[in-house]
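Morning!

As promised:
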Amino acid sequence: MVPIPYYLALSAVLFGLGVAGFVFKRNVLTVFMAIELMLNAVNLAFVAFSRALGQPEGQVFVFFVIVVAAAEAAVGLGIVIVIARNRQSLNVERINLLKL
Amino acid sequence: MTAELLVFLALAGLALAGAVSLILQRHPIHSALSLIVVMAALAGLYLLLEAEFVAAIQIIVYAGAIMVLFVFVIMLLNAGAEEHTDFSRMARYAGVPLTGVLLLVLTFHVARASAAMTAAPPVEGMTRRVALLLFRDFAFPFELTSILILVALLGAMVLAKRDS
């Protein structure tokens, strides 16, 4: 039996790597992938807690997280396509329309 | 060292290698393939945690549908390698150390707070209990998700439509 804290530590490290990718990557698509990585890390923590407590609720939450991630990916990639069409660039530093 | 721990270590190593590769790769398609490796490894970990339903939707929805969407958009936009911009001074001196601190603090506290946590005895028919919960107690949120997906679908179509 693998101890539950191992899973939670792995989840925390994956989340931290997702944050690092979100902050350091320049390509807007890769930034999106870093967000997906963070969502996956949280899902792992949910399932680990579900296993630790013997309760199915955690897995139901994972289901909802995946649904929201799917919706987010669809809308987000639509926005990326529009930005790429208007700016001819995927570099997040060039996407500064909202910047003062 | 039990066989289960060995499987865990192999899958965890695979997931970590994929996540690091996602950050280090310059080309978005390589990052996407790294993310698919992470998701496949996580599906294996879900199986170890006896969450078969989650493992299945992880492969079908995440690695299947969402990542195919990503790869499709990368190819559609013909995204090339990332432009190499110099780290700003703030990113180098504040961003890198702060990310490292976040990683360490998060891992340390999560591991410490859960040190005494042990797995509950295995439950028979966990997927059945998940289904009962999802379609009975969470029936209303479940139906709401279908509306969410519908709205996201329409939003994506409106966004990607060319102005005529």
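The radius of gyration of chain A is 17 Å.

Hope this helps with the figure draft.
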